[in-house]
Amino acid sequence: MDALLRVHGITRRYGSGCPQCLDNTGAAAGTNRCDACGSVWACRDVSLELRAEEALGIVGESGSGKSTLVKLLHFDDAATSGYVELARMPALEGVDDLYAEGCDWSRDVLSMDRYRQRKARDASMGIVYQHPHLGLRMGVSAGGNVAERLLSAGWRSIAAMRARASELLERTEIPLSRMDEPPRNFSGGMQQRVQIAKALSGDPAILLLDEVTTGLDLSVQARVLDMIRTLREELRLSMLVVSHDLGVINLLCQRTMVMKNGQVVESGLTDQILQDPQHGYTQLLVASQLQ
Amino acid sequence: MRVREWMDRDTAPKGTFAFLDDGAKKDVRRALLKAVAIPGYQVPYGSREMPLARGWGTGGIQITLSMLLPDDVVKVIDQGCDGSVNAVNIKKFYERTARVKITTDTALASVIQTRHRIPEEKMTDRQILVLQVPYPEALREVEPSEAQTRRMHAEADYGRMWLHLYEDIVRFGEIRIAYRYPCTVNGRHVMDPSPIPRWDVPKLHMADTLFLFGAGRERRIYAVPPHTRVEPLEFDDHRFRVEDFSGKACARCGATDTFLDEILMPDGTRTHFCSDSGHCDKRRA
Fold it and tell me: How many Cα atoms sit within 13 Å of B221 on the Cβ side?
């Protein structure tokens, strides 16, 4: 399978950094904060490749850098170092100067200006955050939330946008009678489904899922996961699934990376990692799962 | 006539011409040049203290003062009216500090300063319209943070503004903005055209006249140069509309093609008058 997204050594450091940082932080040191200078290495030298129509899981405890990684890839936060490339795809042809002539891969997206970053992102990615209030405007109607990205992309027909929004809300099982209600009136599960509809509005090739089922009760979790699986099949999406729940990862992902203290400690096929964890931390994670 | 020549004449009073010192004028003119070069972009400048409170037209006054020449003819209007207290006071101020001629006739004026209206009479390429602006930021309605709105302008990130209009249409069937209608200038910046009614917005589009906008309290200057596209935000299936005065006419001059003010008469009935008093007077004369 062809890759869609390549990430090379992406790093996010909060603080000035010092010569001792590399020894003082990371999985081996058991912390991501450097004692000498107080810098926090939220995400350190992470590389990955996301292939077409694949779901890649990222698992780890709180503070392991999973969410930071997603934020960096969605340009919500600026990386300290590293670079990100996108494969040539039709949706991105409209972004100026993204690909060099004849190249299958884009230039480094992280070093582009924010305007083109946003265009590239809106054309290729959707994101679903753990908290619906991060991804949704709670005071704006559900339909309006879905339409926001369409408006940014230059759609100017109310009728066409409403048709697209109802199609997506229907797919995510939101009753159309509630399309013009603000999500703040909705239950947690419904809000999460509106968020998914919004993430899908730009017809993305890549969907970033940041702890989407955390905070939902089990039956709602099952429904949301089921829906994500169906959408992945139907829309042939590539997904980056961040979760601390090995069950979610097992259900959705073919490949998995395990993160600890900002670093990747193990990666491989999901089955392999769950059946035969190599790294001590992965063994602990697998063993701590409720049966 | 050059300012310097004028000042060197024996009859002229010695000292500063048009109230502002040269440094202040230079600062404002520099901002004006940049504003004209980037249509619709808000240029920060050092707003000076004026002999009236900020929020009473000090932005427009500073622009006018910094470009006045001795042989200019100035018209000042407030909500279309030449005779309102604020307009009269500003005119007296210009008369005293710059000795310029004052007029109420749009066609005779070389510089027109206005609050909340654009004159009905078509202006020419020899004239400049200075608009007083209370809130220069068109995106303020949707984003309270200045840092964020500046970023949004820099990245042409106007999805939120469009979403605001979309929500209006979904909830109320139409866009509810009566004045300060947001416009895209030169296909790039979304601009607040100052609190002019919708009626006046089309007059900015591809006009012969230079429009200068000054916000004294908010310390911003921006401009629409002549022959620049000024397009109100609209949807393909919900077009921008101006106010509808069909069936109504000015009770003074009988005009049916002007922006009308609705006036409540002492006997409780309602009647309509032209908002542009200079134009109305001219039609009656």
Answer: 28
* A32-87 tens-digit pLDDT: 899 999 999 999 999 999 999 999 999 988 889 998 999 999 999 999 999 999 99
Of A114, A118, A151, the CB nearest to B166: A151
Contacts of B22 (CB under 8 A, 6+ apart): none
Please list, in sequence order, all residues whose beta carbon lies within 8 angstroms of the beta carbon of residue B115, skipping any fewer than 6 positions away. Answer: B57, B60, B77, B78, B79, B86, B87, B131, B132
The C-alpha of A224 sits at a distance from chain B's nearest C-alpha, in angstroms, of 27
Task: Give chain B's radius of gyration (CA, Å).
Answer: 20
Size of interface A-B (CB pairs under 8 A): 52
Cα–Cα distance between A204 and A208 in angstroms, integer?
Answer: 10
Question: Phi-psi region for residue B178, left (φ > 0), alpha (ψ -120 to 50) or beta?
Answer: alpha
pLDDT digits (tens, 9 = 90+) for B14-54: 567 899 998 999 999 999 999 999 999 999 999 999 998 99
C-alpha count within 13 angstroms, C-beta hemisphere, residue B269:
4
Residue with tokens 């790093």: A11
For tokens 């009760």, the residue is A217
Q: Which residues of B touch A (CB under 8 A)?
A: 151, 154-160, 162-163, 166-167, 169-171, 234-238
Is domain B3-139+173-232 in CATH 3.40.50.11310, yes or no? yes
Helix (H, G, I), strand (E, B) or coil at A264: strand
Residue with token string 């009073």: B13
pTM over 0.90: no
Please state which CATH number belongs to domain A3-287. Answer: 3.40.50.300
Query: Among B176, B179, B156, B159, which residue's Cα sits nearest to residue B168?
Result: B176
d(CA B56, CA A276): 75
Sequence spans of domains, chain A: 3-287
Instruction: Count the neighbouring beta carbons within 10 Å of the beta carbon of residue B14.
Output: 7
Whole-number Å distance between alpha carbons of B263 and B178: 18
Does this complex have an ipTM over 0.95? Answer: no
